[in-house]
Design goal:
The structure holds 2 protein chains of 2 kinds.
Chain A: E1 5-14, E2 17-27, E3 32-36, H1 43-50, E4 60-68, E5 71-72, H2 80-86, E6 87-90, H3 102-112, H4 118-131, H5 135-138, H6 152-165, E7 170-174, H7 182-195, E8 200-204, H8 208-214, E9 217-222, E10 225-231, H9 232-237, H10 242-248
Parallel strand pairs in A: 3-8, 3-9, 6-7, 7-8
Antiparallel strand pairs in A: 1-2, 1-4, 4-5, 9-10
Helix pairs in contact in A: 3-4, 3-6, 4-6, 6-7
Chain B: H1 3-36, H2 39-70, H3 74-108, H4 119-139, H5 142-172, H6 177-209
Helix pairs in contact in B: 1-2, 1-3, 1-4, 2-3, 3-6, 4-5, 4-6, 5-6
Classes of the chains: A alpha/beta, B mainly alpha.
Chain lengths: 253, 222
Amino acid sequence: MGVGIEVRGLKAWYGKSLALKDIDMSVPANHVTAVIGPSGCGKSTFVRCLNRMHETIPEAHAEGEVKVGDIEVYGDGTDPVDVRRKIGMVFQKPNPFPTMSIYDNVAAGLRLNGFHNRKQMNELVERSLKLSALWEEVKDALHKQSGASLSGGQQQRLCIARALAVEPDVLLMDEPASALDPISTSKIEELIFQLKQHYTVVIVTHNMQQAARVAEFTGFFLMGSLIEFDKTEKIFTTPADKRTEDYITGRFG
Amino acid sequence: MRSRFQQGLDELRDKLLRMGGLAEQAIDRATEAYRTRDAKFCQMVFTGETSINQAERDIDELALDLLAMQQPMAIDLRFIMAVIKINADLERVGDQAVNIAQRVLDLVSEPEVELPVDIPKMSTSVSTMVQRALESFLDGHAEVAESVLQMDNIVDRMKDEAFVVLVQKMQSDPQLTRAALNVLLIARNLERIADHATNIAEDVIFWVRGADVRHGGAHYPY
């Protein structure tokens, strides 16, 4: 089941430059939340702070309070690896392990976590591929085909399956459909909509219509600040802040 | 800035204002027909209605194109939504003017009678409402739109008063029934036009403020 995310006073830096300024946000469990804003506004940084991916960049660091379910993400004794197991991530460009089979791609995270029971692994791989709506297309080629042999849209669903295999509570998606054609995009969007039954989904997107289609909540970032956070229909019909309105109507800058 | 989109929005606004002009003209002509008992003005209202109907179709088409091609959001989306609704209201204003002209034709087919209802005065109030509603649309002024909402009560009262005196007249002098009924219907047509002006004003408020003030429910989301 998905869990809620509570963010309080989150700040993030790249070296000395402050990229996120005191973000407070409550992401509700089992809903899709979209994060929008112009390039460089901090939306990707924000999402990468949620699973401590931000600090993997040299000289980048973050501080503040991020609570994902029961996990204090920036708590003293918290292991970032545990955090990332609970919070899966899917990136803009599909990045399957090219030489691995479809099966091994999905199982990779499980093996990394010391999982060896063959029968259970088979079940988890099947479940993940079903959840990512890829199973029917690949079930006969699990071991025969490599991840790289799939189409772009299939590769992205494979990456989603890989993220789901370790049974996270939260799925972070950074522009998951921006490199895909409209049909693959609509499959991913439909999938995101389905996934919220089991997961809390946070999606970064440049595509306003996509945010409007898939997300129940939307946050608008600008220059490292969260300007507005509300129900998606409110953001896209009657935003409270002039800057939000200017951005989503394309009057920005 | 999306200049082609902005051009489309400007075009939509201009077309709607032109249509508004036609609707105002229709009210004025219908009133003139009543005042002068000159059927020529009725004919002008009937001819004018064709242009109003054509304008309605043009505006709907352009609005639909913009929705489909530009996927507007927020204030732009509210603007187009307001235009579509105002468009329908203006078309109905044109219809009401036609109804008035038809009543006038019936009135002038009989000898003129004196009735204690001031239709031209009521019409002036109604015209002012339509004018102000369109003015608020032109400038995006929610305050002007609010003043239209206030005026609706005055017109409602005028119609109620007309109802009372005309029914009395019909009872006391049944020979006047046909004329009184025509005038009563005209008063009701005018009151309907005032309702359309009110709708237009509410749509302007929704566009500008994002607030739905229909049916007395002034709930401001921010």
